[in-house]
Design brief:
Length: 530
């Protein structure tokens, strides 16, 4: 197996001089060198062949023992020097101090076809940042991360990727619902792939520790390697404030784009702490995430956040802004002027309004959307929440509604989307009447466009997914994989590679969440325990 190593992070940024895994506060360093843990009996459960190809591996590389050894942490590629990054973060709104890669180990950076990728093992053992935990990950959370990162990519959502899911053969003790019922679970390692795993928190920790020189080095490094449109001289200490502001603008723009995509597909991250925000605007750290089934702005899958629902679906865009404010605070010592940051943050809000309107407009098939459509969109959001309505199914069926409304050949609009409602039997009268009002307004609006029903349906179906990784689907795959059967994992992986396509053979997955999954742990309720 030949990986073309191209390490920069550990070569160009300051290292922690200590090289043990002992937990500690790390100062004046961007990372600590660590040795991944050797798993007892690694076994490949799934591989994303696309990602393998992306990083320069061939089909026969995947089949060999070396692949499993390397991506489970058992064997470090020659020349690589694995390390855990030091970062801090705001968790649930409060500054948490040093966090760092407690169970993630950057294996190496590789180059392929002019692109550079960082390969990171999640669950490969302790690091100086493991605090009171073990550095391991269990199969259920690893499988969820592996499948979801690939599903997100194919939905067109910026995300870290997943190369492989490997069972370690070791048992890991977890108290899944934090209720005193700890039990052993199978352990696993996912190899994640991204341009880099630099987070908002990497900048925050230097700012919090008053290490301005390191902050500058990290900013210069990040800009130089990952933001080629920004001019920076890594050796200059002054005179580059414009570059840092531009960098912040670019991160804001990418973060906004990412979160708009989340809203479009109904993804709820669940733990939008600043240590879980990628500087690339990619979705990162798939923990207790979930997918909206019933469209509900207040929904969060994360039981740890049940009380305040800080990270609920409808709040994600505002939280991203709050997180950007924390990044601005961290970068401030490089600029010493708050005004340009404030302007960028204001810009986020203005831009959010425009892009959200555009996105919602396109979900209902409007190509030219203006402020005049805000009422129609707001009414839709309100009506969708009157009774439990499946988001994915609703928007998919909405594409079948015609401009002219009901005729002899066409059922009325409400009947067209009826399968999206969770209530058995007829809708309450006030809900029916709210929908009829909305459809009247909607069809009237459609008549002002000059798009045919067929063209509009095709455009809608290209952005409203038919298949998403519903919470219960991931759980079914976990149950099977735990019993030694990986077929469903691969079946879902294949299904979710083409989320916008009609797949008649997979119609069973275009269905509302079954009742048994409504309140089942792992399906709609997830904790941070992973
Ligand atoms: P998360 O909520 O998963 O983003 O994790 C927050 C912090 O806790 C990060 O620094 C993680 O690396 C660390 N962490 C989470 N789970 C573990 C674990 N099992 N072992 C060590 N560190 C962990
Ligand atoms: Mg994290």
């Amino acid at each position: 197996m030949k990986l073309k190593l191209d390490d920069h992070f550990w070569q160009e940024l300051p290292a922690d001089p200590l090289q043990t895994n002992q937990r500690r506060q790390v100062l004046q360093a961007a990372y600590s060198f660590v040795v991944p843990r050797k798993p007892t009996a690694p076994r490949l459960l799934h591989v994303s062949e696309e990602v393998a190809e992306m990083i320069g591996l061939r089909q026969d590389d995947i089949l060999g023992d070396e692949f499993v050894e390397t991506f489970s942490g058992g064997c470090v590629p020659v020349g690589a020097r694995p390390y855990a990054m030091c970062y801090g973060g705001h968790q649930f709104g409060s500054w948490a101090g040093q966090l760092g890669d407690g169970r993630a180990i950057n294996l190496c950076e590789v180059e392929h076809l002019g692109k550079r990728w960082t390969l990171q093992l999640k669950g490969a053992g302790e690091t100086p940042y493991s605090r009171s935990a073990d550095g391991l990950a269990v199969l259920r959370s690893s499988l969820r991360e592996h499948l979801c990162s690939e599903a997100m990519f194919h939905l067109g959502v910026p995300t870290t990727r997943a190369l492989s899911l490997i069972a370690t053969g070791d048992d890991v003790m977890r108290d899944m619902m934090y209720d005193g019922n700890a039990a052993f679970e199978p352990g696993a390692v996912v190899c994640r792939v991204a341009p880099s795993f630099i987070r908002f928190g990497n900048f925050q920790i230097f700012a919090a520790n008053g290490e301005v020189e390191n902050l500058r080095r990290l900013a210069n490094y990040t800009i130089l390697h990952y933001f080629p449109n920004i001019t920076i001289n890594p050796d200059h200490v002054t005179g580059q404030t414009g570059a840092y502001v531009q960098f912040f603008r670019e991160v804001s723009r990418r973060t906004l784009e990412m979160v708009i995509h989340w809203q479009r597909v109904g993804f709820v991250h669940g733990v939008m702490n600043t240590d879980n925000m990628s500087i690339h605007g990619e979705t990162i750290d798939f923990g207790p995430y979930g997918w909206l089934e019933g469209y509900d702005h207040d929904w969060t899958p994360n039981t740890t956040d049940r009380q305040h629902r800080r990270y609920r679906y409808g709040h994600q865009p505002q939280i991203a802004l709050w997180n950007l404010l924390q990044l601005a605070n961290a970068l401030y010592p490089l600029v010493n002027d708050a005004t340009p940051f404030e302007e960028e943050l204001k810009d986020y809000q203005t831009q959010f309004e425009v892009e959200y309107r555009q996105m919602m407009g396109s979900k209902i098939g409007l190509t030219m959307v203006t402020r005049a459509d805000d009422g129609l969109i707001a009414n839709l959001e309100r009506t969708l929440q009157l009774t439990e309505t499946d988001m994915t199914i609703f928007f998919r069926l909405l594409a079948n509604v015609t401009q002219s409304g009901s005729s002899e050949a066409m059922p009325d609009a409400l009947a067209t989307v009826a399968d999206a409602f969770y209530v058995a039997g007829p809708l309450p009268e006030e809900v029916t009447s709210a929908w009829q009002d909305w459809f009247r307004e909607y069809q009237c609006r459609l008549c002002q466009t000059n798009q045919s029903d067929a063209d509009r349906a095709a455009a809608m179906n290209a952005i409203n997914p038919k298949y998403v990784l519903r919470n219960y689907m991931a759980q079914l795959a976990i149950d099977k994989a735990t019993a030694g059967d990986n077929a469903l994992t691969d079946q879902l992986y294949q299904l979710l590679k083409r989320p916008y396509d009609e797949q008649p053979e997979n119609e069973q997955w275009f269905a509302k969440r079954p009742e048994w999954a409504r309140n089942k742990v792992g399906c709609s309720m997830l904790s941070c325990s992973s």
